[in-house]
Design goal:
With 67 residues, this protein is of the alpha+beta class. The protein has a four-stranded mixed β-sheet. Strand 2 and strand 3 form a beta hairpin. The chain starts with 15 loop residues before the first strand and ends with a helix.
């Protein structure tokens, strides 16, 4: 995904995605939600604690977790 033309989603790579610290530490993706209001959530199912919540650019998560 080296160029913007390679981006597979309608939402911008700069879109903020809700995730958790365990996801950023390498936990496996368990749930992906694209809400009606346009928000994305990519979660591991291990925590919903407010202290673990993070917002990350969509492009970063796709790069980290793309097979």
């Amino acid at each position: 995904m080296s160029r913007m033309s390679d981006w597979p989603f309608a939402d911008s790579p700069d879109t903020g995605v809700f995730t958790t610290q365990p996801m950023l530490d390498g936990a496996r993706v368990r749930d992906v939600h694209h809400d009606q209001d346009g928000d994305w959530q990519i979660l591991c199912g291990t925590t919903l604690a407010a202290d673990d919540a993070r917002i990350v650019h969509f492009a970063h998560l796709v790069r980290w977790f793309r097979p």
